[in-house]
Amino acid sequence: MKPLDPKLLKHAPPARAYVGLVIVIGVVSAGLILAQCFLIAYSAAPVISQGKTLGDVSGRITALAAVIAARALLSYVTEALGHRAGLATIAALRGRVLDRAVELGPRWLAVRTTQTVTMVSRGLDALEPYFVAYLPQLFLCVTVTPATLLVIGILDLPSALLLIFCIPLIPVFMILIGKMTAATSKKKLETMERLGDQVLDLIAGLPTLKALGREQGPKHRVAELGENYTAATMSALRIAFLSGTVLEFLAILSTALVAVEVGFRMVYGLLDLPTGLVIIMLTPEVFKPLREVGSQFHASADGVAAAEAAFEILEVPAPAPGTTSAPDLSTQEITLRDLSVEAPGRGLFAPSGATGTIRPGEITALRGASGGGKTTTILCLLGLVTPTEGTASCGGIDIADIDREAWWSQITWVPQRPVIPPGTLAEYLGEGDRQRAAALTGFDEVLATLPHGWDSVVGQGGVGLSVGQRQRLALTRALMKRRPLLILDEPTAHLDAASEGEIIAAVRAARDAGMTVVVIAHRDALLEAADTIIDIRAREVAHADA
């Protein structure tokens, strides 16, 4: 990312206001620094060379104390505003990235899940030092450095020319070291993403590994990735220390050259004492913002790398949203005609050529082998995936052209892993006839075993309930909503025969209540309950050179 990337101002509105404030703070800081140096010089010089007492310069000393207090207050305000702007910008970028991930759809997110999660969580958190430490120093470079150099030039041209000769050395080394830092930070972020991928895969497959007695195997790979991440972090720290050392050496050397030159000219009477003191005190202030920018760049490099990753996601073109009014799902049929979707990276169309009609008030089952595209067909019905070939339409309107919010307002979707936030069962289900819906799904039997009934608390994802109980709870909520279309993704996959019968009865009850039910089914009992069955198959993609 550039020192101040326009993309940051474009995608994060809080950053714009902060940049404006920092510009004002930079101008005020330049004025205070100049005032401080002049007050010190013209307070000390009369005492040293003219025999004045401290009482004679007490007014200047009082003004100096006020300037120092103002600089301290300004430093506090700058840091406080930096923290607030950083947090606000991080929140804004997170929100925009998550919104764009939703717009890009589940197929895109399935490939980038871990990278996106890593970037919007730990990655963007590292952007805060960029606002707290880096940006203020960057704007001091364009306010304090030119202002102090201009004043030195007015007071003594030879000193200004010497500084102009020395100043470019610092940016040159900053650029060289910055390129090394950017590459190291990018490598560190990639290592963190790989580590996250491995850990998430391990957690997801741990029950299977445990059952096979192989749970110890992956720990060596996780340990190796952890060591790689440590090595990348230490490499970034080494570059940061190297940068700080080089910049400090150049700044000290340049300051020393000016001090020696000014000192000799004062000895020979070519420069008066107050002017010489002002130049000697202003010289470090010329280099300080440049030095601080170089050192603070390393503190913010990880956040900058994450911000660049966020910009890449935000610049991925999203499918154009539909604008057509949604047909009434309680009366209109949904038609699949030669529906095919290419599965990325698999060389398959899954589904391939799916054709069928979903009629209002009926149970329609999608039947097919695992990996054949049944869930993808559901995503097409929801408007989350655009077909590669063929169409999915309702009332003669392509679903991709229908306004999403209006379309979704008529649909209840219960996936294989229902989203259940932490809280009480009553909070999850909301207002309505809970008891009737629970009786239809068999969740009333589960409720009877819970000591606090509807006030029983479950954790994130339904922790505290079995997989089958979570499925029943989600189906209970779906029946309470009573929307025209109910979509179920294998609702009986984790249930025994008795529980399966209760779910099938609930599905039939939903149909009898006038709801249209679309269900992904593998078991015969659920297929037998269906009024219509649509077969879903996959086929290989034909290549031109085949």
List keywords for this structure.
4-stranded antiparallel beta sheet; 546 residues; alpha/beta; 18 helices; 64% helix; 5-stranded parallel beta sheet
Question: What is this structure's SSE topology?
Answer:
Elements: H1 6-11, H2 13-49, H3 58-104, H4 106-125, H5 128-141, H6 144-155, H7 157-166, H8 169-211, H9 218-267, H10 273-314, E1 334-340, E2 342-343, E3 348-349, E4 354-358, E5 363-367, H11 374-381, E6 389-394, E7 397-398, H12 404-408, E8 411-414, E9 423-424, H13 425-429, H14 434-441, H15 443-449, E10 457-458, H16 467-481, E11 485-489, H17 497-512, E12 516-520, H18 524-529, E13 532-535, E14 539-540
Parallel strand pairs: 5-12, 5-13, 8-11, 11-12
Antiparallel strand pairs: 1-4, 1-6, 2-3, 3-14, 6-7, 9-10
The gist of it:
With 546 residues, this protein is of the alpha/beta class.
Describe this structure in words.
The protein has 546 residues and is α/β, with parallel strands linked by helices. The protein has helices spanning 6-11, 13-49, 58-104, 106-125, 128-141, 144-155, 157-166, 169-211, 218-267, 273-314, 374-381, 404-408, 425-429, 434-441, 443-449, 467-481, 497-512, 524-529; strands at 334-340, 342-343, 348-349, 354-358, 363-367, 389-394, 397-398, 411-414, 423-424, 457-458, 485-489, 516-520, 532-535, 539-540. The strands form four sheets. It has a five-stranded parallel sheet, sandwiched between helices. It has a four-stranded antiparallel sheet with strand order 4-1-6-7, with helices on one face. Strands 2-3-14 form a three-stranded antiparallel sheet, with no helix packed on it. Helix 17 (497-512) links the parallel strand 11 and strand 12. Helix 2 packs across helix 5 and helix 3 (58-104) packs antiparallel against helix 4 (106-125). The longest helix is centred in the middle third of the chain and has 50 residues, at 218-267.
